[in-house]
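Office hours follow-up: a student asked to see two folded examples consecutively, so here they are.
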Amino acid sequence: MKRLSLVLAGLFSMGMIMAANLFADQQVSDATPTAAALEALVKEKGSTPEELEKLADELEKKYAGGTVPESVRMLIAIARGSQMGPGSGWFGPAQGRYSWTWLAKLHDVPESESITTAAFKGTPEIFNRLDRNKDGQVAADDFDWSDRNPYVQQSYIVNRLFRRIDQQGDGRLTRDELLSFFDKVSQGKDFIRSEDLRDALIGGPSGFLPGDAPNQQVLIRGLLLGEVGSLNEGPKVDELAPDFELMTQDGSRKIRLIEQIGSKPIVLVFGNFTCGPFRSFYPMVDELCQRYQSDVTFLAVYVREAHPSDGWLMESNTKVGVKVAQPQNFAERKSVAQQCFAKLKYSMPLLVDEINDPVGNAYSGMPARLYVIDTDGKVTYKGGRGPFGFKSGEMEQALVMTLLDRQLKQAASVGK
């Protein structure tokens, strides 16, 4: 097997490789290792499956009993053969100030019970958005967005099927696309059997659509380059959201985050053109933007490509006409962002991150992520890393509880 060191040769200077000292036998720091340190470690230990397995064992021993940085967790997962599934490596749950525990306490009900419409302290509109299963009451199950939840599991399956039928790759199925899919699968018949549908939609044992599955070399390279996700971890809940100022995709203006804070909560939407799940999920976020436009400011931030043609290329992207190399300067990134803006029909401003990814890294926004920021500029919701953590329904619940808390506090202030 060709060694990964040859694949990665030239990515970093020899001086940067000295960062491997972070992984010496002394006490390991909780600080997030740099890409150079991770690359140096892989070069030192080797990249065959056996060598990577041994590396994973060594890292687990070094961090035993301590906090394991997300980047190290991801490296361990890849070294053990992970195929980047839900719950693997750094893919984990969202973090939020507001939860079922918070809501139950607000309504003075045990967490094992539920809240009815009559007892709810907010508006009927907010109640309906929290009632995920639409049974007329809000309970703990409505707030379970974990990977083990049947609703979430079924959502993964539906999205997979949706992307297979979505011939334009824009997250919006048309009648013509559905009819075209039927004609293709039915092969001249006027019906489709369940077996026909199964064979047309299920890609294989890897869980990826045909031509999309990666190998270890591709994943490690993507990890070091920030394509599968930022090595940084982003702000925590209740921390101030990092300020930034970025240009819109059309170059018409710059928007600074701090100037948007105060009158309304803010939703930040991170994403990129070559992330197929992001393209399929985005239309729902755009719908939320239109639903809450009078009460919430939505800002999209365009970040580093997840599946460029010179990286982890996905055939499912190629089939829908999405095939671009990783931009090497801001002009190239802006050009791809404009393609994404046109294809997905953004109704919110799309800001383009600088080519060295300052905002994507500050928020750990690659390849896709959602944040909610309150009127004090603090994070109330930090979605999980995309694609698995990019859950518009979960974000909406966090958003409406942010609005509810603000409304109740304003009412109490007026009462006093």
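And the second, which I mentioned at the end of office hours:
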Amino acid sequence: MGVTDPAGPVMDRDEVDRALARLGAEHEAIETSLLALQDHAGRRLLEGAELTGTTRERWTAAEASITLLWAYFDAYTDALHTAREIRARRRWSSREDLVELTELLRGDSITVAGSATATANAPTLLSAAGRLSERFSLAALVDRMNELYATSLDMVVTADAVWSALPARIDLLAAELQRTRKLAHSVGVRPGEHPAGDDLERITRILTKLREDVVSDPLAFWVPAPGSSAPGGGRPDTTVYDRQARALEEVRREIDAVLTVRQDAEARLIKLRDVLSRADRTLAEARTARGEVLAKIAATEVPVVSGPPTVLQEQLATAAEYRRQAQWHRLSPLLESLEQKAEDELLRARESLTAVTAPLAVRAELRGRLDAYKAKMARHGLAEDPFLIERYDAARRMLWSAPCDLRVAGQAVLRYQQAAAEALGAPRVPQQSGPEDRRGE
């Protein structure tokens, strides 16, 4: 190795043999990779697809790269074949043979002729654009092939990953969409008549457009993995698909609700009629009670009782008509609204009855308190006390007369309580602002 030439020190026979063995193994590995790339399903799909956008641009570059790869590989194969022939001339290679082998194995001895168009389209060879040939060493040629192979494989694997993931999922969702559309039509949910029908039309349009875009430009639906340099590092972008899947699920839930209405409509209508009927009866009772209060209680403000709202009965009749015509999509929201309004109406009627009968409840409380104190006096042997009898009779006449002045009657009951307390030797009952139940004393 003492003698040198432009390629560096001349290699000896052992170095040549080791280099040829390494280059042979490298040649086999490169050939295997190129054949795998050539047979890759993604590459075959790319060749037959009508591409657009980013995918079209990158596939043009990848095709040029693959063309150059085979040209480089052929040059590499020829150089290796030539080196093997030179080494096979003699068992013990001459110095001239070793010099030639050194130049071939280490020098820039390989000339690659190629298309200027292919060279210009290859993304990693911008510096070589426009040249009709290039010179490489075997090591530089392998580096260039590795570079082109990595970019080409990344493009092919990425497109194949998107095509393998998204179209099939879109087709499954589209099939589910068609089943949902048929179910929706069966319950009257149609575009222009129900919001869910409009949603189904919108989802159909978006899925159709999404599939067309995925097939023609798969790379537009790829999210690279941060910091990853491996071919195909990343994942398909399913954002649009996921959004439509969620929207379809919401529509399904709404249609299920409509189907539930179809099954339970009669029972719900019966229940609605019962609730409204109870509200009407309660209001009627409140109106009757108001007349009684006005007749029996004096100097009391009694609230006016309104009549039942006719609009609820009209809506109930509309709901029954929707059921008769099987317009379930219209019946569903109307029933939900009516059920809430009916419960509110029943609550309002009960509150009206409570407000109207409040004076009668006060009178009843005063009567009960008066009788309770009388019974207490009887237990203590004071039932025949003239003063207590006088106070009791005065209070009783006021409470059992009509109309009854609750304020005056309350004061009379209080006076009887005070007299009873004095008779028992208890502290005097304090003045009170209104009736109070003291039956426990």
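Two things to take away from it. The chain has four domains: 4-156, 161-259, 261-356, 359-423. The mean pLDDT is 83.
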